[in-house]
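User: Hi! I'm working on a homework problem where we have to compare a predicted structure to a textbook description. Could you give me the structure for the chain below?
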Amino acid sequence: MKPTKYFIFVIAVLLNLGNLFGQGALSSADLRTINIENLSDKDIQAYYQKATDAGLSEDQLLDLAKSRGMSEGQITLLRQRISQIGLQSPKSSGAGKTEAMGTAEEQPATESSVRRFDQSLGLVPMEEKAYNKRIFGAELFASTSTTFEPNLRIATPLNYVLGPDDELIINVYGYSEKTYRDKVNAEGTIYIENVGPVLVSGLTFEQAEAKIRQKLSGTIYRAMATGGTKMQLRLGSIRSMRITIIGEAKKPGTYTVSSLTSLFNALYLCGGPTDFGSYRNIELIRNNVVIRKVDLYKFLTMGDRSDNLLLQEQDVIRIPYYDARMVIDGYVKRPGIYEIIPGENFDQVFAYAGRFSDSAYRKSITIYQIDESRKRIKDLNASEFTNYIPQMADSAIIGSVLMRYANRVKVKGAVMRPGDYELTESLDLLSLINKAGGVREDVFRGAGNIMRIGKDLGPENVSFNLTSVLEGKEKITLHREDEVIINSIFDLQDEYTVMIEGAVHNPGSFKWRKDFTVRDLILMAGGVTESATANQHMIVEVSRRVRNADVTGIDFKQSEIIRIEASKDLTNGESKLKLEPFDMVVVRPQPGYQQQRSIYIAGPVMYPGRYFLEKSGERISDIIRRSGGFQSMADSNSVFIRRANNTNDEEQRKMLISRFANISPDSLEKSPRLREEMLRNYTSLSVDLNKAMNYPGSNDDIIMENGDQVIINQSSSLIKVSGEVYFPTMIPFEPNTNLKYYVKRTGDYTNLARRNQAFVIYPDGKAAGVKKFLFFKQYPKITPRSEIFIPSKGERSGQKLSTGEWVAISSIFATLGTLIISVFR
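Assistant: Happy to help. Predicted structure tokens:
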């Protein structure tokens, strides 16, 4: 075939045969080599008409062709041909209508318009419709797969019936070589040069091949009779035809399809049967005669394609209503709704559902029936499956096996192989113990128990003596679901432990063992620390339970205290004291042993950093002297000590502060200084350093403790204002001014400000609030480096405080010191 004619054939198929290539064929077609000059006006007009029906303009149509590979030169030529033929581009008019009047400004082709265009050519199935997934076979037509699209790459079927517009290619080879390409005309003939017309319409491909060979061998190719010349017939372009699908199809109507379309292809194009359509009685009507009744179940269950006939011109496919269906549900491999045909027994229908699943009850099933007036129920035994004929609206329910064992006994506890075992007629308790590998060494040879289900289905207990059973003196018969419990001696006693604490590396609780000594326990605890071995001997105390205390006395003995002296190497006899269960051992550190204590000093001093305390009563004045004194930028009036302490949980403290002090959590978040002061895990000690330095040893000269932090601030004249003011900022200190002056400098209070509870936090951690007497207010004094905070209004809690919360509040008072006293008067 010449290339130009081949391209004409391709474009003609795309334009006129519609669904010849199935879904998406046009969208994947390669138009890069199409020659517009070889297309007829009729072809271009048909192509253009399909585009206008889909709502595409001329520009959109050309853009679509360009996106599918058509060159710029061919697009220009196509535009000229459209103009020469006199085709007009659709124009938007009014509310979404189109009219063929000239060219207007067009929008790009949308995906939906392109899809409508492809649908108008029959290349894409219509939109998917919802389907009932329970109907067996419905999923076959649920998706837009290509399972049932006609295959054009197969050899021409010998039973293919020729008709007008089919193209036949006759290849003659051997002594003579010649190729003939002829289309079957409307009269059903082809014209062969030097042979004449040959009638082929209505003949199968095999019959037409024999007839053409006879004509050629009887005229110009007589060597065919001897085999010197041979002939091959094949199908070129194929014709389109029209079929009709009626009845309960999802998309009934008339379809223009390829002449190679089969019945299954057509069912796919129409979307298959509806929820009320039959899958087992589909009719193929040809020349007003039903020539085949199609049962799709044969294809769905066995892959039988014998009903997949090639369609012919004017064929009618009718999908009737189903006659009867039944539901198969429960423990089957494929629950669903199945169509039944007359004479079909339940066993045949049950096979469509895949029969029983693994855990199904197989002896019988339950059938729910509907007669003329009411429902009925039927128990169907497995032996009756082949004899029962299902009725319309039957429902078969397959149950599951009972989740219980018919012959199980259990054994647990002090046996070698506890677990489940088979109950046989000869199995007694001793046989079961032997099956389980016998008893363990730690077995309790006294009483054992059997948990049993009684005759009234209530729980029962059977006690036995294990020693008698093992010696064969007592024989106990077992029942189904018996649970034998054989105890271990360790199950019947406390877990014996001993505890050690004090000057050892790993204090804690350890498992007691027989002949366990103090030395053994110390070694298991990682040995003693240096604090216990400062001298040649160390003191160890053992607290032992008194098991027979005289509780009638007023001052009865609660525990026995054993005090021993052990050598550093634990070799003396006292360290070999044997421990008893629940003994508690304490290794005492030497009284003269002290670890170094340190404090930390920060701020503008000569030598800031960590300092170790030299003596137990070292004071703040001593530390300041050791640090070299203040730098020039230091503020000696702004010194305080942070001393660590144990505080309550931060969230609880926030809640208590909010409820008791009526300060909202937002206020705490907005003021880092306030949050730090109120939620800190240390105590702030205010220091009058001038008195401490001038009067060493006085009450103001505070004694330092391990972990103290001495904070010395830099000299500054800035006042920080935060909280509910319009412009929180820092303002230079002005002598003889009060709180109100600085608030005015920040734009005044906001609407959310709680004015009466404004307070000042001083550099040393002290605080003072606004005092009010009758109609007069007294504002606190402002000093350099103070912080003014304006709290936010919050909702007062009406809940009463619990006893625990009052205790927590007391702790807050103690840790916050002067700050809390001043703020919450």
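For your comparison, note the following. The longest helix spans residues 3-16. Residues 769 and 825 are 9 Å apart (CA to CA). Good luck with the assignment!
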